[in-house]
Amino acid sequence: MISVLEIEVLKPFLKWPGGKSKELKVILPNMPANINNYYEPFIGGGAVYFATHANRYFINDKSQDLVDLYLNIKSIDNFILFKTLSEIDNYWKSIDNIFNDNKKIFFDTYIQFRLSENNNLKTIIDNLIENLTNDFISPLQNSFNYDFKFYIKEIKLNLVRKMTRMKQLENQKGILSDEDVELNILTALKSSFYMYFRQLYNQPKKYKIDSKTYSSIYYFIRNYTYSGMFRYNSSGEFNVPYGGMGYNNNSLEKKVTYISSDPIQEKLHNTEIECSDFYEFMSTKNLSVEDFIFLDPPYDTEFSTYDQNEFTANDQKRLADFLINEVSCKWMLVIKNTEFIHNLYNKPNIKIQYFDKSYNVSFMNRNNRETEHLMIMNYW
To answer: 212 with 81: CB under 8 angstroms?
Structure first.
């Protein structure tokens, strides 16, 4: 077996809320030096999984969309996914060209709106975008011809909203620079495309979207959603807006190259990937003393919905009972420190370490107000 500290660390290809990339400097040195089978029931972005070396890997998540993304990246026909992602990225970049080709008319439209007391912006924008409709939809004809009517409607709505908001801000804080005006208009156009893909993500059955295309849309959305958030409304629809101006120049090009690279492909092809409850996932495994389980479950919070899947206090209890009473191999759990969680694991033969919010310092005193995270293990 090879020590986890001797292997070059791979990085996750997906940003995930609560991901553990920054905490690897603490997690990895505290893991067993040698691992036969590696298990991770809550894979998320997989920062620890990608950084760990073992003979074999078994990962799981209850998010079907996430698991399908892993499976499609691993699949024998994954080139379809990579091609689709490249097409999305090429279109994303082409929005800049559409804007630059028509920059003067976009800019002049806002300046006229800035100086006018008339409230006819919607009509002006409607006419402008009708004339440019072919520019926006023709590059999408082959791969994403699902609902161009919705897309064009979003472009019009986003431009009206953005320009109205810009004028309000100018009335409050002063005139925007020409550069800021242009950047805001471009952001409205980028946001429109994001909203179009958000619609496709929320309605895959309506649009009859195949698995590879759907995973591509999901991956795009996860990379461009505001602050990496993934939140759903009461109807089960994803409702987080576009990340904003700072995302305008982002690209999926390097990410596509990375997920298709040999190291990532070799890792995934040595990995069994499942989508189930953590107990269903783990209870079918024949664990040995040389195996290891890493766990990064949803935090113990009032709002514990996890990618449309609830993880309740009872689930936290089920998890603790399983780890303490049923697991024969070494395991490590990293989670936010709450009294409820601490009490679940404050048992004989269970080691609890305390860390500050940046995971830089280990504390012995659990009552220290800086001890925001716990690292819980059944080994020393």
So the answer is: yes
**Cα-trace Rg, the chain:** 24
Residue 333 half-sphere exposure, CB side, CA atoms within 13 Å? Answer: 24
Long-range interactions of 242-248: CB distance < 8 A, separation 24+: 242/187, 242/190, 242/191, 242/194, 242/195, 244/187, 244/191, 245/183, 245/184, 245/187, 247/190, 248/96, 248/183, 248/186, 248/187, 248/190
Residue 8 pLDDT level (bands cut at 50, 70, 90): low
Residue 77 sits at φ, ψ, to 5 deg, of: -110, 35
What single-letter DSSP state applies at residue 293? E
Length reported for the chain = 380
pLDDT digits (tens, 9 = 90+) for 266-282: 999 999 999 999 999 99
Burial environment of residue 376 by CB neighbours within 10 A (0 to 12, 13 to 18, 19 or more): buried
**pTM of structure:** 0.91
Half-sphere exposure of 370 (CA within 13 A, CB side): 9
Tokens standing for 48?
């620890």
Which token pair is 35? 């691992």
Instruction: Give pLDDT tens digits for 24-67.
Output: 999 999 999 999 999 999 999 999 999 999 999 999 999 999 99
Residue 120 and residue 99: Cα distance in Å, rounded?
Answer: 22
